Amino acid sequence: MLQKKLTKVGNSYALILDKPLMDLAGLSANEPVVVYSTGHGLVVAPVPSPVRGFDEAEDRVFAKHGGVLKRLAEV
Which end of the chain, N or C, is less packed with Cβ atoms under 10 Å? Predict the structure, then answer.
């Protein structure tokens, strides 16, 4: 278990997440997150995205099958 303190920032409070914790949670700087209550605490997680990694997958598919896809588009 990791114990952290909240830091006052203006009229709000911030939870500072260090790099190892960010890596463990799968978060990166400036990435949108969702925060929700479980009834026992808060969960902070990356915004679910059905297209996460789509661009990389698209590049791999077109690199491997681009010629075939182009010919199919012409039919």
Answer: N
